[in-house]
Amino acid sequence: MKRMMMVAASAAVLLAAGQAGAAGVDKKAVLSNYADIAHAKYEDSLIAAKKLKAAVDSLVAAPSTETLAAAKTAWVAARVPYQQSEAFRFGNAAVDEWEGKVNAWPLDEGLIDYVNADTYGTESGENPLYTANIIAHPKLKVGGKTVNASKVDKKLLEKMHEAGGVEANVTTGYHAIEFMLWGQDTNGTGPGAGNRPASDFDTKNCTGGNCDRRVAFLVSATDLLIDDLKNMVDGWGAKGKIRAKLLKGKPDTGIATIVTGLGSLSYGELAGERMKLGLMLHDPEEEHDCFSDNTHNSHFYDAKGIQNVYLGQYTRIDGTQVKGPSLSDLIAAKDATLDGEMKAKLDSTMSAMGALVKTAEAGEAYDQMIGAENTEGNAKVQAAIDALVAQTRSLEKAVAVLALGEVKFEGSDSLDNPSSIGK
Question: Mean per-residue pLDDT for 123-139?
Answer without folding.
Answer: 96
